[in-house]
Design goal:
Elements lengths: L1 H17 L6 H13 L3 H13 L6 H14 L2 H13 L6 H10 L1
Length: 105
């Protein structure tokens, strides 16, 4: 069941984009998190990249979801890069951020 939720989330996200609905951090964060939970780290990371390169500022939730996606897929180097980017952007890390980054290593 969880495996199909990421597909549904991406479909809805795509529909929002096509409908020219203004995407906010909640839409991105929810979709990134759903992809991460479905084991779709590449999709999660692509969405995170879209968010970073767009007009939206990632939140601690955004960074946590991206780090968790890297952790789930075994990409510890990328998890550290995301954590470093978070520090550079002056977003305050939370306990969950540290835990996910440590677990990724």
């Amino acid at each position: 069941e969880n495996s199909s939720k990421w597909e549904e989330a991406l479909q809805l996200f795509s529909m929002m984009m096509q409908s020219r609905v203004k995407l906010d951090t909640i839409a991105f964060n929810t979709t990134i998190s759903t992809c991460e939970k479905g084991g779709k780290w590449e999709e999660a990371f692509e969405l995170f990249g879209m968010m970073v390169s767009g007009e939206l500022e990632p939140t601690v939730v955004s960074y946590n979801s991206a780090v968790s996606a890297c952790k789930t897929s075994g990409h510890w180097e990328r998890a550290l890069q995301v954590f470093d980017a978070m520090v550079c952007s002056k977003v305050e890390a939370k306990t969950a951020t540290f835990n996910a980054t440590i677990s990724a290593c």
